[in-house]
Amino acid sequence: MENKETFNAVAEEYEKYRPTYPEQLFEDIIQYTNLQKEDSVLEIGCGTGQATSGMVNKGHTRIICIELGSNLAHLTADKFRTYPAIRVVNSAFEQWDGAGKPFKLAISGTAFHFIEPEYGYRRVAELLDQDGCIGFFWTVHVPQYNEIHNHIRQHYRELAPDLDDSLYPSPAETIQERKEITAKSGLYEDIIVKEYDWIQTFTSQDYIALLNTNSRHRQLPEAVKETLLHRIQNTIDEFGGKIDKDYKVALFLARKSS
């Protein structure tokens, strides 16, 4: 199962347990692009519509949402059924015909990395109008090294060493890599990056449910995944039943080159 397909199997859980994006992020997108209510927006990989909600809450409802997963697409379409200008298309972005172009803005929340960059950035540029912009954002993993997270990390080292986050690139390295990929396309200018940080507290049960929506966890052999999640939940319970998680979202804004 490809990473980009794993979320479709847990659409309801993804909607319930994944945190929403900060309100300030959408304010920054709108300010950067000078987006007007009548402007058309393309969303790539809408998932359960979390980013869609962020735009709708700011009064922007002329949105075409592209989503590969049928369950996710159905959930999002149902969520915004009272907004006639929002259209959800159940398709891979690579196979979509681009109906509705040109767009003033293309957004994508923690999804655009599933598209081959050379194709993706070029295709988006083709779909944007002359002064169009992109606002792509990703949740960036932040390793934590306090006592509870160190205990949990040991479970990963024993059962799923590829998920040992101490071996991951740092948040700064991850952000710089994505900025370089955007610039390398040669199709965008005035690239800026904004970061948003917060801490969220989970019960042991909710934290396990959150991990179960993660594509890399879902690709583990079932027995390994069950043992790993059971151990993590026990560790959290031993530390009082709650765990704090650091969150970081990086927003990449850029204008289509003239």
* Distance between the first and last residues' Cα: 39 Å
- Percent helix, as a range, is 40-55%
Strand order of the largest sheet: 3-2-1-4-5-7-6
Which regions contain 5 or more consecutive residues with pLDDT less than 50? none
Question: Which overall shape is indicated by the principal axes computed on the Cα atoms?
Answer: globular
Q: Decide which structural class fits the backbone.
A: alpha/beta
Number of strands: 7
Commentary on this structure:
With 258 residues, the protein is α/β, with parallel strands linked by helices. 41% of the residues lie in helices and 25% in strands. The chain has eleven helices and seven strands. It has helices at 3-6, 11-17, 23-33, 50-56, 70-79, 117-127, 147-159, 171-184, 204-211, 215-218, 222-238; strands at residues 41-44, 63-67, 86-90, 103-109, 128-140, 188-203, 242-256. It has a seven-stranded mixed beta sheet with strand order 3-2-1-4-5-7-6, with helices on both faces. The protein is globular, with a radius of gyration of 19 Å. The model has no long low-confidence stretch (mean pLDDT 94).
Descriptive key words:
258 residues, alpha/beta, Rossmann fold, 11 helices
What's the SSE blueprint?
Blueprint: H1 3-6, H2 11-17, H3 23-33, E1 41-44, H4 50-56, E2 63-67, H5 70-79, E3 86-90, E4 103-109, H6 117-127, E5 128-140, H7 147-159, H8 171-184, E6 188-203, H9 204-211, H10 215-218, H11 222-238, E7 242-256
Parallel strand pairs: 1-2, 1-4, 2-3, 4-5
Antiparallel strand pairs: 5-7, 6-7
Care to give the gist of this entry?
The protein has 258 residues and is α/β, with parallel strands linked by helices. The chain is built from eleven helices and seven strands.
